[in-house]
Amino acid sequence: MPTISKSATVQTVITTFEMTPGTCQDLLEALTEAYAEFISKQPGFVAAGLHVNDAQTRIANYSQWEKREDFLAMLRTPEMRERNRNIHQFCKSFEPVMYDVAETFG
């Protein structure tokens, strides 16, 4: 489970996917399979979560990695490059962005 903390030393990556309600379930299944079979087993992976909006037009993915280089190495693998080509067919766009936790509340 992701832990959101200003003092955490992990690399946070938030990826948003934009799609139609007709492809939301297909995309969610492809992402779930990618995490279960491949991404979660990569060096440096810490945790991740998938979130779907109620209109089923966006999926937000929150993931954490020990180092930014671990995330980038995973993206560059032949398997992930192939999976990303497959994922892209279900959505209009997706963009992974690396973030630092600036503040937390609660």
- pLDDT below 50 for ≥5 consecutive residues: which ranges? none
Mean pLDDT: 95
* Helix/strand order, N-terminal first: EHEEHHE
Estimate the global geometry from the Cα principal axes.
globular
Q: Indicate the structural class.
A: alpha+beta
3D architecture notes:
- GO terms for molecular function: monooxygenase activity.
- Residues 11-105 form the ABM domain.
- This is Antibiotic biosynthesis monooxygenase.
- Keywords: Monooxygenase, Oxidoreductase.
- Pfam families: ABM.
- This protein is an alpha+beta fold and 106 residues long.
- The protein has a single domain (11-99), classed as Alpha-Beta Plaits (2-Layer Sandwich), CATH 3.30.70.100.
- It has three helices and four strands, in the order E-H-E-E-H-H-E.
- The chain has helices at residues 21-37, 68-76, 78-88, and strands at 11-18, 45-52, 58-65, 93-99.
- The protein has a four-stranded antiparallel sheet with strand order 2-3-1-4.
- A hairpin with a 5-residue loop joins strand 2 (45-52) and strand 3.
- Helix 1 packs antiparallel against helix 3 (78-88).
- The chain is globular, with a radius of gyration of 14 Å.
- 14% of the residues are buried.
- The model has no long low-confidence stretch (mean pLDDT 95).
